[in-house]
Amino acid sequence: MFGVLRDVTVFFACSKTISRIFNVFFSFAFSSSVAAFDLELISTIPYNISLGVALPWTGAGLDLGQESVRRRYASSGLNLTVTFLYRPEDRSCDDANANAMLLLTEYYNRRAANRCVAIISSACGGHALTPYLAREWNVLLFTNSLVTNAAINPQSTPTAIGMAGTYDGFALALFKLFRYFGWFHVTLLQDSSAATEFYWETFKAVPSLAARSEYSNFTIDGFRFNISELQTVKDAVSMAAQRSRIFVILANTAVVIRLLRTAKENGIIVPRDYVFIVFQPLRQAVYGSITLFDNAADKDLDLFDSVIFLTTYGGVKSNGSDALEERILERQRNGYRTILEPGIKASSRG
Fold it and tell me: Which of the residue ranges 56-70, 205-219, 317-331 has the most confident prediction, judged by mean pLDDT?
């Protein structure tokens, strides 16, 4: 039953942020007054899922993190191991989420109970429920992807730490943009056929945030469509166009372009009379890169003129960032056969 990818001697980091957190933790744990101990980290991060948090994209950073810890704590007495749990045959989030819970529960009860462990979870890795298991087991849990507020709530899930923020945080970024430009009537369009839960969770988070008193002057409408069903696209855009001129389109970037072309060709919208906000969690091909808007055909110029592309970025880099980027990219190419789109740095991928 166990879908164990591998056991390695030392591992703990899925990003530079997590590395810093754990370095502080280990520095405390191995102070002169604390005896050495065994620690196991259990990962439920999926593998064969087309999301930016999956191991083909994050595994290289994890591997380099383990090597860093091995060097730093080689003489401390730390006996740190990691176990990766996943099912190679899982190809959808529904399957991966369900199996992550089964794998984690069985593994913990049979092999890890009454031991010092921590859990690393992610989107499609059961993170909707793993924080509650971590609470019951009284173990620390980290997530390497966006989570709902409920998943890292100090009252209901006190042992869970979200390392990549929450959907409410992403929704807040949208409201800051709306307020800056004075856009108080906004319509959300969400592709119901999308494989990632990011679009659906954001679709729910934005109106939820609008219900708060500080955002009471905003009017938020929302409609769903299936890009494979032309009529649903026409209906959603038609209803959206009747309510506002600001659209937030929650879908893969290639899907966004298809939707815009459909709306224009069917006379539903007049280009340049609307603003189209494309909102992506990461700058990765699995979500659709901004480069899809490059070298636009003449027929698309008026559509693309009204597009705002929002996504995350790596932020301020330290002196050693460039060297680390190269190490991650090299490990990613050689160990995971994964190549980032040109111009995207490893630390900007999530």
Answer: 205-219
Q: Which residue has the higher pLDDT, 153 or 30?
A: 153
Q: To 10 degrees, the CA torsion angle through 286, 131, 174, 309?
A: -10
| β-strand pairing of 185-191 with 219-225 | parallel
Cα 269 to Cα 98, 160, 265, 317: the distances in Å are: 41, 45, 9, 42
Sole residue written with tokens 């592709």 = 191
Across the chain, the runs of DSSP E, i.e. the strands, are 4-8, 38-43, 79-85, 117-121, 140-143, 160-162, 185-191, 219-225, 246-250, 275-279, 307-310
Cβ neighbours of 78 (radius 10 Å): 18
Alpha-carbon distance 298 to 264, whole Å?
14
Per-residue pLDDT tens digits for 3-53: 333 333 222 333 444 444 455 455 545 554 455 667 788 999 998 887 777
Bridge partners for 222 per DSSP = 188
The string of DSSP letters for 240-292 reads HHTT-SEEEEES-HHHHHHHHHHHHHTTS--TTSSEEEEE-SSSSTTT--GGG
CA distance 198 to 196: 5
Instruction: Pick from 62-71, 140-149, 312-321 the range whose average pLDDT is largest.
Output: 140-149
φ, ψ for residue 48, nearest 5 deg: -90, 45
**How far, in whole angstroms, is CA 126 from its chain's centroid?**
13
Query: How far is 240 from 273, CA to CA, in rounded Å?
Result: 13
In 123-270, which ranges are continuous DSSP H helix? 130-137, 167-181, 198-210, 230-241, 253-265
Question: Any idea what DSSP says for residue 88?
Answer: T
pTM for the full predicted model: 0.74
